[in-house]
Specification:
The protein is an alpha+beta fold. Helix content is 23%, strand content 24%. The strands form four sheets. It has a five-stranded antiparallel β-sheet with strand order 1-2-3-4-5, with no helix packed on it. A three-stranded antiparallel β-sheet has the order 6-8-7, with helices on one face. 32% of the residues are buried. Keywords: Kinase, Transferase. One of its GO terms (biological process) is IRE1-mediated unfolded protein response.
């Protein structure tokens, strides 16, 4: 199976693709499984298109899909979750909970675990840790995690993917010291981020590093999710050393000495 995640960020589109996967049968014929979201609901459909690129916006608009039950997509609302009131301010980014829908109950557990970490961190905020504002509630479900928006990821900046007028000020030493400060804070709480890579480091308007994406974050000694290929040793246990390894590669990445190519620990 060829799997591609294609997340749309265009808010004007009523339907946004969550993922497209292409599978082949024994006769060599392929089909596409397309998962999309519309108005906080998630649908799946199967297409006879033989190539991923043939499933365009028109095909998505015309698609008829099967609805995922909400209990298979979203965590149940809990009273210990901070509820975010709407409408949301323009400086708020919403991480939609459906991003884990393909992982079933395991995905829902990951979302719940991330919320627990963010709720705990919000009582003791740190300037190099993403700012959490609460979650969006729809009926009895948690459908989105509300976080502060930042300028760009470190990966986008280093790879030249940010227009000049949208770039944050960039000083390598400031960024590296910011990541170190955020990690030291987490480790002091007995937590390991466990997925430190340039995609999970953002820069704010002043050019300071902000660590994001806490769905892998867990307590020291707990089971590890393995991290991101190219930026991790694929560990089985969450340890401070996992974050230190990721940080060392980020330093090399900033210096132009590493490009995320070592995926051998993942057997890729």
């Amino acid at each position: 199976m060829i799997f591609a995640v294609v997340s749309s960020t265009n808010p004007t589109k009523a339907r946004q693709i969550v993922s497209i996967s292409e599978s082949f049968n024994d006769d060599g014929f392929s089909k596409l499984e397309v998962v999309w979201t519309e108005n906080s609901q998630v649908f799946v459909t199967y297409s006879s298109h033989h190539r991923l690129k043939q499933f365009d916006d028109h095909a998505l608009f015309e698609a008829q899909g099967t609805l995922f039950p909400k209990e298979k997509v979203y965590p149940s609302w809990r009273e210990n979750i901070t509820e975010m009131q709407r409408p949301l301010a323009s400086n708020i980014y919403t991480k939609m909970a459906y991003c884990q829908c393909l992982n079933g109950e395991a995905g829902i557990r990951l979302i719940d675990a991330e919320i627990d970490v963010l709720e705990a961190l919000s009582t003791n905020p740190h300037p190099n840790i993403v700012e959490y504002h609460g979650c969006i509630r729809e009926e009895d479900y948690m459908v989105g995690i509300c976080l502060s928006k930042y300028r760009c990821t470190l990966n986008e900046l280093i790879r030249g993917q940010v227009p000049p007028d949208q770039r944050s000020p960039f000083d390598p030493d400031t960024v590296i010291s910011g990541v170190m400060s955020g990690l030291t804070f987490l480790h002091g709480l007995g937590l390991v981020h466990d997925d430190i890579n340039p995609h999970n480091i953002m820069l704010n308007d002043e050019g300071h590093a902000v660590i994001i994406d806490f769905d892998s974050c867990t307590h020291v000694g707990a089971e590890s999710r393995g991290g991101t290929p190219g930026w991790s040793t694929n560990p089985t246990i969450a340890q401070v050393e996992n974050d230190e390894y990721g940080l060392d590669l980020i330093v090399q990445f900033i210096r132009g000495e590493y490009n995320g190519e070592n995926v051998e620990p993942f057997g890729l």
